[in-house]
Amino acid sequence: KRMKLSNQSLFQQKAYINGQWTDADDGATFDVVNPATGAVLGRVPRMGAAETDRAIQAAKGAQAGWAAKTAKERADILMRWHDLMVEATEDLAQMMTAEQGKPLREARGEVAYAASFLRWFAEEARRVYGQTIPGHQADKRLMVIKQPVGVVAAITPWNFPAAMLTRKAGPALAAGCAMVAKPAEDTPFTALALAQLAEAAGVPAGVFNVVTGEPETIGATLTHSGDVRKLTFTGSTQVGRLLMRQSADTVKKISLELGGNAPFLVFDDADVDAAVDGAIASKFRNAGQTCVCANRVLVQDRIYDQFVEKLAAKAGALRVGPGTEDATDIGPLINQAALEKVQSHLHDATAKGAEMVAGRGHDGLEGTYFAPTVLAGATREMQFFREETFGPLAPVVRFSDDMEGVALANDTEFGLASYAFVRDLGRVYRIAEALESGIVGINTGLFSTEVAPFGGIKQSGLGREGAHQGIEEYLEEKYICLQI
Ligand code: ADP
Predict the structure, then answer these.
(1) Are the CB atoms for 81 and 118 separated by under 8 Å?
(2) b/e code 66-89 from CB counts within 10 Å (16+ = b)
(3) Aldehyde dehydrogenase domain spans which residues (predicted)?
């Protein structure tokens, strides 16, 4: 089945290298499947090392000219790219729902969120200020200038096919870097549509390239290349570790947004209804497939039963179905492997004594659908406590005092996001400061915005995206010492 698009040129089944729509050298392709139906949506080139090298060389060739433009010139192009994205909202949303599965409402929200990074970094481009330093000797004048790092490789995941790309391409291009991007195999069409819009916005050939194909080969080529000066990656911790290791030989700058295992704490002075709404928003967005989704819900004794009952009622009322239907809250999971992981966490938990108080998992559902499921009586001995579930399964663990809650929350190698619902102001500060994560949401289940720094500590990654910090990741500082 074809996607319904008003601008069919957004649907590209070729990679984009040096301003050219390009096939693999040997003509090989792979299929992209709609997770809601299992139907093949189209195919894209299965590229390898040779094509990736050509993309790197194209970026290298375009790098100096792009960096030499004024910040305003680059900003104007990024703003046009933003405007074209916003104009194409409906087509991009249809495309994301088709290849990723999220409800159209969420897909439209993602287009706005994704475009916001282009606008923000168009604005930031002109605020890349250097520094002058009082000299250490009377005849010395010291200054620091900021320059683009050079060619950037970006590897992006399938869960936010547009936003995870613009969050990298926006600051990279704003800073004056050229980029080679490799989108996830499940969702390449959104990235290719963005390339089409970039070209229409006036991004010069070679400045923004998209290669599709074998992740291992493309990843190895990008990381081993001395011409690639920076790697920015969003995806699993396992692949992040591998890419970090591969980048060591060429001492690349790296930014990594890796897995999370977000604790969602509810303390006994919390507004329980607000906490339930926050948990629903955090846990079930994109069917639980975001790296900041609540993975472990931790609730204090005194309000535990009340919270579980209310959460079960709300989660049980969420509607499961194809993202194309207006009523849908929860679309399909991305693929069979994702379904199996969520099922294994469910089976492990119930085998160890957790009780299903809402939802029935995958039972009675087709394809990769999984009903929002709430587990009472969950404990730290269960698999979900160690690993990110990445699906609509909400295990609720009981804790007694504040310090135990925080200790449970921090008992993980990950440190991306945490949530706490708590009202006493002293407690708010103590808890927010004690939580080991790059992001803390207090009394809210939603915090993502282009204006704030997003990123993790511990094994959730390196660097920050968005905010002013986001552009610094693509800049090098150069100290100039002048004798007068
Ligand atoms: P997930 O488990 O969510 O799919 P991955 O880390 O596997 O997360 O995928 C995120 C991105 O990393 C995707 O674009 C994927 O193609 C890419 N990827 C997976 N394996 C490798 C690899 N060995 N080298 C480079 N990129 C990879």
Answers:
(1) yes
(2) bbebebeebbbbbbbbbebbbebb
(3) 21-479
Residue 450, token pair as written in the block:
């282009």
What is the pLDDT, as a whole number, of residue 4? 82
Distance CA 177, CA 282 (A): 34
Ramachandran bin of 467, using left for φ above 0, alpha for ψ from -120 to 50, beta for the remaining angles: left
For residues 48 and 36, give the distance between their C-alpha atoms in angstroms, rounded to a whole number: 29
Residues 195, 208 contacting (CB under 8 angstroms): yes
- Residue whose structure tokens are 């511990």: 458
Q: Is 256 in the pocket of ligand 1 (CB under 6 A)?
A: no
Complex ipTM, two decimals?
0.99
Q: Distance from the CA of 157 to the center of ligand 1, in angstroms?
A: 7
DSSP 317: T
Could you give the 3-state DSSP secondary structure of residue 295? strand
Beta strand 417-421 with 262-266: parallel, antiparallel or unpaired?
A: parallel
CA dihedral 239, 245, 248, 252 (to 10 degrees): 10
Answer yes or no: are the C-beta atoms of 402 and 298 closer than 8 Å: no
User: pTM value?
Assistant: 0.98
Answer for the pair 254, 462: CB distance below 8 angstroms, yes or no: yes
Number of H helices, E strands in the chain: 15, 20
DSSP letter (8 states) at residue 47: B
Write down the pLDDT at residue 1.
53
Ligand 1 and 30: CB distance under 6 A: no
